[in-house]
């Protein structure tokens, strides 16, 4: 049983709701996961996939491991993964990356794509990965870092609404946190950009996959009406439009961690 904070319950609920159509719309997440898979440089016996979502990437991880345990905070994602991917080499667990109900030193690799930005600060999640890995094991990770959604944050600020996007940790802070946990780190950062015709489509692309929980307190912020959203779109266009489309940057930290 997960002891989830109200914030984590909200995150889990929104991803759970998105589970049945996530794979149809999460294209940039798929591309980032493929770039994360490319970091894997050896075959494992038991691999952990943290924040596995619908399990589509856990299934692909079977090319790199004898068995994969997919772990996710959202019960709806785990239910979907279980119902969709049928292999005796795959198993599923509804659990929090920051409090894994797993024995220490039981995995010889870990993978996570586009999930750990929800763990802030990231130290606890790194500590858990370190704890469950055997010595000499590796973790292959990608997560959103500072610079992500910068255009959207600028546009909110330009219309006087202040910050309405999530805070992302800087790539350097993420790397330092991994080192402080005792990992050797190979790292890089890379931008992925999606393009949208309208602000409605852009905001919808975040909401559709269930990633629209704002992790800071939003008690003083009202939902914008259509007029407000069009003002947001205007500000976005003025500062960022490319070929009349609205770009949205996903700035990604890629990490290959080794437990010595
Ligand atoms: C953007 S999806 C990525 C899913 C999958 N890794 C992929 O690449 O398609 C993020 C996933 O992280 C999960 N998640 C968020 N916070 C988590 C936490 N603290 N522990 C475990 N999973 C978490 C969400 O429930 C969601 O399924």
Provide key terms for this protein.
26% strand; binds S-adenosylmethionine; seven-stranded mixed β-sheet; 260 residues
Helix and strand arrangement:
Blueprint: H1 6-25, H2 27-37, E1 44-50, H3 56-61, E2 65-72, H4 75-84, E3 90-94, E4 107-113, H5 123-132, E5 133-144, H6 150-158, H7 171-180, E6 183-196, H8 199-208, H9 226-240, E7 246-259
Parallel strand pairs: 1-2, 1-4, 2-3, 4-5
Antiparallel strand pairs: 5-7, 6-7
Helix pairs in contact: 1-4, 6-9
- Distance N to C terminus: 32 Å
Q: What's the CATH topology label of the domain at 6-146 and 166-192 and 252-259?
A: Rossmann fold
Low-pLDDT stretches are none
Kindly state the number of beta strands.
7
Q: Could you walk me through the main structural features you see in this protein, from its secondary elements to its overall organization?
A:
This protein is α/β, with parallel strands linked by helices and 260 residues long. It has a domain at 6-146 and 166-192 and 252-259: Rossmann fold, CATH 3.40.50. The protein is built from nine helices and seven strands; from the N terminus they run ααβαβαββαβααβααβ. The chain has a seven-stranded mixed β-sheet, with helices on both faces. The longest helix has 20 residues, at 6-25. The two termini are 32 Å apart.
Brief overview:
By secondary structure, this protein is an alpha/beta fold. Helices cover 39% and strands 26% of the residues.
């Amino acid at each position: 049983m997960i002891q989830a904070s109200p914030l984590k319950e909200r995150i889990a609920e929104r991803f759970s709701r998105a589970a049945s159509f996530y794979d149809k719309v999460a294209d940039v997440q798929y591309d980032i996961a493929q770039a994360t898979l490319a970091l894997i440089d050896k075959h494992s016996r038991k691999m952990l996939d943290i924040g596995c979502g619908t399990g589509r990437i856990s299934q692909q991880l079977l090319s790199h491991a004898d068995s994969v345990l997919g772990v996710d905070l959202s019960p709806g994602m785990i239910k979907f993964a279980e119902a969709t991917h049928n292999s005796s080499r795959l198993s599923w667990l509804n659990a929090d990356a920051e409090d894994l109900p797993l024995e220490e030193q039981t995995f010889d690799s870990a993978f996570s794509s586009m999930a750990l930005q929800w763990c802030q600060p990231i130290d606890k999640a790194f500590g858990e990965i370190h704890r469950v890995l055997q010595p000499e094991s590796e973790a292959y990770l990608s997560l959103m870092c500072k610079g992500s959604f910068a255009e959207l944050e600028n546009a909110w600020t330009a219309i006087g609404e202040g910050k309405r996007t999530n805070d992302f940790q800087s790539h350097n802070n993420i790397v330092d946190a991994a080192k402080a946990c005792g990992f050797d780190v190979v790292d890089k950062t890379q931008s992925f950009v999606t393009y949208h015709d309208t602000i409605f489509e852009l905001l919808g692309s975040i909401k559709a996959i269930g990633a629209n929980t704002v992790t800071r307190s939003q008690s003083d912020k009202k939902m914008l009406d259509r007029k407000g959203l069009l003002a947001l779109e205007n500000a976005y266009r003025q500062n960022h439009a490319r070929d009349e489309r609205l770009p949205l940057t996903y700035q990604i930290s890629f990490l290959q961690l080794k437990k010595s």
